[in-house]
Amino acid sequence: MEQVILIRFSEIHLKGKNKGYFLKLLYTNIKTALKEYKKVITPIQNRVVVSDYDVDDEDMIIREIKKVFGVYSVSVASVIPSTIEDITDFCAKLDISGSFKVDCNRADKTFPIKSNQMAADMGGVILDHCPNAYVDVRKPETVVHIDIRENGKTYIFDKIIYTYGGMPLGEYRDGLLLLSGGIDSPVAGFQMAKRGLRQDILHFDSYPYTSPQAREKVISLAKQIKNYIGCRYMYIVSMSKLQEEFHLHCKEEYAITLLRRAMIKVATILCERYNYKTIITGESLGQVASQTIESITVTNSMAGNYPILRPLISFNKDEIIKVAQEINTYETSILPYEDCCTVFLPQNPVIKPKIKIAEIEETHIPLSELIQKAIDEIIVIEL
Question: Measuring CA to CA, which of 78, 259, 365, 381 is 20 to 30 A from 138?
Fold first, then answer.
């Protein structure tokens, strides 16, 4: 009997006339995720079926499918012809002990028996052949799912593996993720990818004030999240000279504010150069001094026409850590290597900065020249 992996989606159903476009994206992304495996991928009405795969690869295939945004759930299913005789014969051979129920989905409306009646009938068949089974429709130990599809096939399974859902990644890398070595920014990239935003990565370092290990740590994080966010390129920009100038010539308490503004300016230049449409950061409101409403306002003023997306703005640290652990970035993020925001850290950073004061402080250094020099020395890594 043929065994397949049945893939379902949910939110795409809401897209009306654009549904076909999103289904095509989802199908393409599933093929990309499974490119290393022997298999056949077939779209059917409101489902995608993976068949003819090596059963030894089944767990790995499911693991990769779970990373594809837009997929709502996955099941390993047996496939039989959509006839009453075949379905009855299959259910008669099930070995069920304890409580159960049958759930039937009759997508093929030409099938002669309606869903509720079919579920009741097959429940009776199971009771007749499994003396230790009994029906419990509220909290069953086993649920037998019968999915009668429009392609003349019925898929029967007892387990549903829920995935991340969301929307499929888009065709183009429209977002630029500011990735630090901390816990937050990889999670921010993941959260935006779940909404379909494909991203590349921008990282700022402060070598020689930070170590080569600090850079390698962030490259490791980038590789860990690249399949989630659809990343191809990682840009590394040194902020050392800018930080030296801020430290020597500007108000100490404004050092972090000025650094964040410079980072956003660099990001907007790269957006214009490489046609990214938005910037993503891992900021969470009130978490540190640079993440107050006032600080965010001062930073935003450097972004020009590019929106800054902050998907973690309302998350607390425990919520962020939970996602980081789920996507396996947490252990890398907590490795004890400093990032550029810890260099020349002021003792009392301003928590309510003013745009006018920040702009005045920036006149004390050749800001545009330093930013251009940093961009000229950019390192580009293809992940």
Answer: 78
Residue that the structure tokens 């500007």 belong to: 250
Reference 79, options 69, 68, 71, 90; nearest CA is 90
CA distance 100 to 126: 9
Dihedral-angle region of residue 242 (phi above 0 means left; psi in -120 to 50 means alpha; beta otherwise): alpha
Check if the beta carbon of residue 259 is closer than 8 Å to that of residue 237.
no
Domains for the chain: give ranges and CATH numbers.
Answer: 3-162 (3.30.2130.30), 173-382 (3.40.50.620)
Report d(CA 65, CA 310) in Å as an integer.
27
| 278-310 per-position pLDDT tens digit | 999 999 998 877 789 999 999 999 999 999 999
pLDDT in tens, 63-97: 999 999 999 999 999 999 999 999 999 999 999 99
**DSSP letter, residue 101:** E
Q: How many residues does the chain have?
A: 383
Provide the token pair at 154.
């019925």
Q: What is the Cα–Cα distance from 33 to 262, expressed in whole angstroms?
A: 36
Determine if residue 277 is left, alpha or beta; phi over 0 gives left, psi from -120 to 50 gives alpha, anything else beta. alpha
Residue in the structure block whose two tokens are 């299913």: 77
Give Cβ neighbours of residue 123 (< 8 Å, ≥ 6 apart): 100, 101, 102, 135
Single-letter amino acid code for the residue at 348: N
| 317 vs 328: CA distance, rounded Å | 16
Rounded to two decimals, the pTM is: 0.91
What phi and psi values does residue 104 have, to the nearest 5 degrees?
-120, 130
If DSSP codes are grouped into helix, strand and coil, which group holds residue 156? strand
Of the candidates 246, 265, 294, the residue with the CA atom closest to the CA atom of residue 204: 265
Query: Residue 291 has what pLDDT?
Result: 85
What gap in Å lies between CA 145 and CA 74, rounded to an integer? 13
- The Cα 204–Cα 202 span in angstroms is 7
Give the Cα separation of 94 and 304 in Å (integer): 63
d(CA 257, CA 216): 26
Q: How many C-beta neighbours within 10 Å does residue 71 have?
A: 26
> Distance between terminal CA atoms of the chain?
41
